[in-house]
Automatic annotation (TrEMBL):
Family annotation (InterPro entries): Cyt_B5-like_heme/steroid-bd, Cyt_B5-like_heme/steroid_sf, Cyt_B5_heme-BS, Cytochrome_b5
Originating species: Jaminaea rosea
Domain Cytochrome b5 heme-binding as annotated: residue spans: 23-99
Bilayer topology term: Single-pass membrane protein
SMART domains membership: Cyt-b5
Protein name, as recorded: Cytochrome b5
Assigned GO CC terms: endoplasmic reticulum membrane
Length: 143
């Protein structure tokens, strides 16, 4: 191929370079290119895993995996409380580390849906305060 960069295939080659036990660097763009049912990569805890072959075997089903394609699936993965058994499967599917590390991945992957996904609109937390204020004002007026 024309790509001159050295690539560690996703097969089970030898150990990777010192320091990084997670193979090559994967960009968010590249992650996004493997988002279909027949070719699925997942990002968990800063590492990218090729779960294509595992989808049929996943006890949680293939749909949940497809739903996490192209995003940071760490939260979804942790929320389930996966066992050590589940975690021990991860190294076998490792493609590499996400470029820029976990922080960048989080920003890039979730900036679009962060506001909706997380605690919703921060302005909403003022509603109870406003109601409380209104109640006190009302009580005060009655006296
Ligand atoms: C490469 C990543 C993943 C691996 C290797 C994996 C592996 C497993 C394994 C082995 C189980 C059986 C229970 C256990 O041992 O903990 C399981 C259950 C489950 N997984 Fe995953 N999983 C992965 C990613 C995900 C993701 C991203 C989700 C997203 C929500 C998910 C959702 C679930 C659910 C809901 C169950 C429970 C199924 C049940 O007990 O009914 N998994 N997974």
């Amino acid at each position: 191929m024309s790509n001159t960069e050295q690539q560690n295939g996703s097969g089970g080659g030898g150990e990777e370079k010192k320091g990084e036990s997670s193979g090559r660097q994967v960009t968010m763009e590249e992650l996004g290119q493997h988002g279909s049912q027949g070719d699925l990569w997942l990002l968990v805890d800063g590492k990218v895993y090729d779960v294509t072959k595992f989808m049929d075997e996943h006890p949680g089903g293939d749909e949940v995996l497809t739903a996490e394609a192209g995003k940071d699936a760490t939260e979804a993965f942790e929320d389930v409380g996966h066992s050590d058994d589940a975690r021990s499967l991860l190294p076998g599917m490792l493609v590499g580390s996400i470029e820029g590390g976990v922080e960048k991945a989080k920003k890039t992957a979730s900036s679009a849906n962060q506001t909706i996904q997380k605690n919703g609109n921060p302005a909403l937390m003022f509603i109870p305060l406003a109601l409380l204020g209104a109640w006190f004002a009302y009580k005060h007026m009655q006296q």
